[in-house]
Design goal:
Layout lengths: L10 H52 L9 E4 L2 E3 L6 H4 L7 H5 L10 H6 L1 H4 L23 E4 L34 E5 L33 H17 L21 E2 L14 E2 L13 E2 L8 E6 L4 E5 L4 H8 L13
Parallel strand pairs: 3-5
Antiparallel strand pairs: 1-2, 3-4, 4-8, 6-7, 8-9
């Protein structure tokens, strides 16, 4: 009678197998994460394409692009230009959101006072077209807008003129974009603020108490003041003092700079200026109506933006500051070569 012996794994063989599995997992996980981010980035690009298309459908119907924000009643007898509906809200019928648009009362504001009660349902509605899935904090944080209309190089958020496609209480048309619609940014993306620390890169902002030296219709006119402002904002941000409220991208329905609009001053995903926004003279007010609002993303190497002609392009974080400024202006006469961005 033969006795068969059973042979199991030795400890060394078992460790080798475990090591091989660990290596395979280490190789596989980054590939899976990259594939998922590619899908998320593709959705972000598609959202911007739809926004660009809606922008031009609006222009075709109305004759101009929408206002950055307008005037409405906050309470009976009291009109306001703060907390009113955004360009994004005005474009809703051209973004396949006619039902939501029809539920909104544009005679009233949407953020505060009596008007906020009338418009609360629409105001608090999350819309996928305004949410970039690469930003894991939107809308989980309570802030639900990742796409911002461009004010160009304007750092005076209350001025009715702007160098960009959008302006406070003012509308522009294609005829006003003499630099060319393909050379002018219409919408850019940015990460929303969140419950994360105000020191988290691109999530937190600051509110210096002193007056802004760079407030102007066109930052090109006061470049020294702008650079001084940016340095002050960064010093405060890095020190951990005087944080702004967490309201970057608060609601797609509000047309305030920092909530629904940005300016092309700080280059995308800036390492030098790692904050989300900076508002002078209003401590605790947050990014709302800030002088400096940045574009940021979780995409590797840069951000997406919709141009005035409706196309979508990817802009590297390494883009030169003067080129970024020029891409924001609609009629400054800058000549940009195809290889400059």
């Amino acid at each position: 009678m033969k006795i068969r012996s059973r042979r199991g794994f030795t400890l060394i063989e078992l460790l080798v197998v475990i090591a091989i599995i660990a290596v395979l997992i280490a190789l596989l996980l980054p590939a899976v994460q990259a594939a998922r981010e590619a899908a998320r980035r593709s959705q972000c690009i598609n959202n911007l394409k739809q926004i660009g298309l809606g922008l031009h459908n609006y222009h075709q119907a109305i004759g101009t692009f929408p206002l950055a924000n307008a005037v409405a009643y906050s309470d009976p007898g009291n009109q306001t230009d703060w907390g009113t509906w955004s360009a994004q809200a005005m474009m809703l019928p051209y973004l396949e959101q006619s039902a939501l648009y029809n539920s909104m009362n544009f005679a009233w504001d949407c953020w505060w006072g009596t008007g906020s009660g009338y418009n609360s349902t629409a105001f608090n509605t999350n819309l996928n077209i305004f949410i970039c899935p690469s930003d894991g904090e939107s809308p989980r944080s309570g802030n639900n807008n990742n796409y911002f209309g461009s004010l160009g190089t304007t750092t005076d958020p209350w001025n009715v003129n702007a160098t960009g496609i959008f302006a406070h209480k003012t509308s522009y048309s294609v005829a006003d974009i003499t630099d060319g619609t393909s050379n002018t940014i219409a919408f850019g993306e940015a990460l929303v603020a969140s419950a994360l620390s105000n020191r988290a890169k691109w999530r937190g902002g600051v509110t210096p108490t002193s007056a802004s030296a760079g407030t102007a219709i066109d930052a090109n006119q006061v470049q020294a003041g702008v650079l001084s402002d940016l340095q002050t904002c960064t010093q405060i941000f890095n020190s951990g003092s005087n944080p702004a409220g967490n309201n970057k991208g608060y609601r797609w329905g509000t047309g305030s700079p920092g909530i629904g609009h940005f300016n092309t001053i700080v280059t995308p995903n800036s390492v030098t200026y790692p904050w989300s926004g900076c508002r002078y003279g209003c401590v605790g007010c947050g990014n709302d109506y800030g002088q400096y609002i940045t574009t940021t993303s979780n995409h590797s190497g840069g951000v997406n933006a919709a141009m005035g002609d409706g196309s979508v392009r990817f802009f590297k974080s390494s883009i030169a500051q003067n080129v970024w400024w020029a891409l924001g202006t609609r009629s400054n006469g800058e000549v940009l070569s195809a290889d400059s961005y």
